[in-house]
């Protein structure tokens, strides 16, 4: 029986210098490299897409520091396993606990880590493909540094293949020519682990020792072996993209199909629902304010219900969002405002709309000449709210739909020619 580990495991880097594509973390002057030289790192969260080196980086850190190392997967471990590791770590010094997919731990499971992290019993390294601001509770997140791992570039991936061909003992028994690599790169989706294992699959599927890699060869073998939906791989990103674009394009049929693909693949209901909450504001906005209410209610509901019943709730929301009028006016407004804020710096708040809680502030004319809008006709009085340097700048331009046309009419009547409505 062949017990040889997969190519990705055989080629796993042993040092920071061997790790591909993360120079901001591994470079000579990087914070992480300096910390390892000093022999100490804080608890950290490694955030990035699949196959960019999160697990490898945790192993390198532990090997470099030469401390006891414990590894758990949030998929198969719970509070019991966490407490067992913590008790074992009490007997050692500076133990590292690596938790893969930490975003799958619920609040109770994450809370079980707090005391040990706070007391320094363990140094936590968590790995996640999801935004830790959403998936790691605030108390634990405040005790950790977040390091972002970037997607691997084409040159990084091609170098991995070349290094494997030159250094792996099994591949050295073949004569391999990389004639075409587009299929390998596309099917792996920037995931180094998937790339190397697919590459090995192609090599081992050949009956020849002299192998010329072509796109046709790779595609034919991949179609036989690669799963239809890998929620930890590139299809996770491709299908959620297709789902969002279908709703944006007002096609409920396509939207519900891609939703079904994610459900069949076991995608996290919170991930799907969260994307719909964002979509409701980014792509529908004030064209139908109820969209955000329904999407938010959907997020709450699927958290309570879970599969399989939550498929019905997700379908209702997805088809409603796809069938809603669209507007990205609110999304564009905040982007324009942010750009202005960055380029104009700290513009002063006009005195008349400043808060004046103290006598000193009142003496400095804070709040002086402020007009209370509810005293005006139609609860409106024409006064300046922007800094004088950007007075009259239009950030929000209502979309061309029934609801926002009403908003435009309302604003145009009040602001006359000041803003471009």
What general outline do the C-alpha atoms trace? Answer: globular
H and E string:
HHHEHEHEHEHHEHEHHEHHHHHHHHH
Q: What percentage of the residues does DSSP assign to strands (E)?
A: 5-15%
Classify the oligomer. single chain
Name the structural class. alpha/beta
Helix content: 40-55%
Mean pLDDT: 88
Number of strands: 7
At CATH level 3, the topology of the largest domain is: Rossmann fold
Which CATH class of the largest domain?
A: Alpha Beta
CATH architecture level-2 label of the largest domain: 3-Layer(aba) Sandwich
Would you mind describing this structure in some detail?
The protein is of the alpha/beta class. The chain folds into four domains: 22-148, P-loop containing nucleotide triphosphate hydrolases (Rossmann fold, 3-Layer(aba) Sandwich), CATH 3.40.50; 154-225, Helicase, Ruva Protein, domain 3; 234-322, Up-down Bundle (Zinc Finger, Delta Prime, domain 3); 345-415, post-AAA+ oligomerization domain-like. It is built from 20 helices and seven strands. The strands form two sheets. Strands 2-3-4-1-5 form a five-stranded parallel sheet, with helices on both faces. Strands 6-7 form a two-stranded parallel sheet. Strand 3, helix 6 and strand 4 (122-128) form a beta-alpha-beta unit. The longest helix has 16 residues, at 269-284. It is globular, with a radius of gyration of 27 Å.
């Amino acid at each position: 029986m062949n017990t040889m580990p997969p190519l990705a495991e055989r080629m796993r880097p042993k040092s920071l210098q061997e790790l591909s594509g993360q120079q901001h973390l591994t470079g000579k002057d990087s914070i992480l490299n300096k910390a390892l030289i000093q022999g100490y790192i804080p608890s950290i969260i490694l955030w990035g897409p699949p196959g960019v080196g999160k697990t490898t980086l945790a192993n390198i850190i532990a090997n470099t520091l030469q401390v006891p190392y414990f590894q758990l997967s949030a998929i198969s471990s719970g509070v019991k396993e966490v407490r067992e590791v913590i008790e074992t770590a009490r007997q050692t010094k500076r133990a590292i606990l690596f938790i893969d997919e930490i975003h799958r731990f619920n609040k109770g499971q994450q809370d079980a880590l707090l005391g040990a992290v706070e007391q320094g019993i363990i140094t936590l390294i968590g790995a996640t493909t999801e935004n830790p601001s959403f998936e790691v509770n605030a108390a634990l997140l405040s005790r950790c540094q977040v390091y972002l791992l970037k997607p691997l570039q084409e040159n990084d991936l091609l170098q991995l293949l070349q290094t494997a061909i030159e250094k792996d003992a099994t591949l050295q028994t073949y004569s391999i020519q990389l004639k075409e690599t587009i299929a390998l790169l596309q099917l792996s989706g920037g995931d180094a682990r998937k790339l190397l294992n697919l590459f090995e699959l192609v090599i081992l599927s050949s009956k020849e020792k002299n192998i010329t890699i072509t796109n046709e060869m790779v595609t034919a073998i991949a179609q036989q072996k690669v799963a239809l939906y890998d929620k930890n791989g590139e299809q996770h990103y491709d299908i959620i993209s297709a789902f969002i674009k279908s709703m944006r394009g007002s096609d409920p049929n396509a939207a519900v199909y891609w939703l079904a693909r994610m459900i069949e693949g076991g995608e996290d209901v919170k991930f799907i629902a969260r994307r719909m909450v964002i979509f409701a504001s980014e792509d529908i906005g004030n064209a139908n304010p109820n969209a955000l209410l329904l999407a938010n209610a959907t997020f709450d509901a699927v958290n309570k219900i879970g599969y399989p019943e939550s498929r019905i709730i997700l379908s209702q929301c997805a088809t409603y969002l796809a069938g809603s009028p669209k507007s990205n006016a609110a999304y564009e407004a905040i982007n324009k405002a942010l750009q202005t804020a960055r380029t104009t710096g700290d513009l002063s708040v006009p005195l008349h709309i400043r808060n004046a809680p103290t006598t000193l502030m009142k003496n400095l004319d804070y709040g002086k000449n402020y007009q209370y809008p509810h005293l005006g006709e139609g609860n409106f009085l024409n006064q300046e709210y922007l800094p004088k340097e950007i007075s009259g700048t239009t950030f929000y331009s209502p979309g061309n739909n029934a609801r926002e046309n009403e908003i435009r009419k309302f604003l145009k009547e009040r602001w006359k020619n000041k803003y471009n409505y």
